[in-house]
Amino acid sequence: MRFINGCAKSISLVKEFEDRGWDAWTCDILPSEGWHKHIQDDVLNHLNDGWDMAIFHPDCTRLALSGVRWMYLSDGSIDLERYSCLVDDCQFFNSLLNADIPLIGVESPIHHHFARELIRTYDQIIQPHYFGDKESKAICLWLKGLTPLVRTHWIDKSEIKQSVWREAPGPNRKANRSRNFKGVSRAMAEQWGNEV
Q: Any idea what the CATH number is for the domain that residue 174 is in?
C-alpha cells in the first residue's frame, strides 16, 4: 500500500506507516528532515501518483483562527490582497481534500470564519493528549473515506502542557509548531492503516 504525507517534512508519521509495511513517502517544497523517500516538489504535481492514502498538512498561516486579525486593515476594512491569498490557500486545501485518492486526512488548526466559508466543516477535533502526548493543541481533521480517530489515552489535566504556544520566536518556530505528535502519528497509522 502506498502512503503520502503531503506538505510535510517531518518523519514521525511516515515512519509509523512504514513500520507497518506501507510504502510511505513525504512531499514538500522544502527538503526532508532525513526521510529517505521524499519528493521535494509541489504536492499538487503528485496527487495522481497511485496513492492509497494521503494525510496532508497545508500551511495554516492565513487559515487559522489565530491569524484572522491580519485579514483587516487598520481602518477595519478587509485587506483585499490578503483575502485573495486566503482564497488561493483555500483552493489548495480543497484540492488536497478532494484529490482522487481513496483515503484522505487533512490536518489543520481551527479556521477563522473567512476560511470556513470556503472550506467545508472539519469532521473531528483531536488533542495530542488523547493519544499519549502530554500536550494541548486543537487539531482539526477533515476526512475522506477515513473514520474518526478513537481516543486511546486519558491524561491528568495537571500534566498537559502547551509547549507549542510557548516556543520563543526564531527561525525554527514555525516548523516546530507544525510537527506531528508521536502519539497522534501512531494512532493514525494503527487505526487508519487498517482501513484499507
A: 3.40.50.150
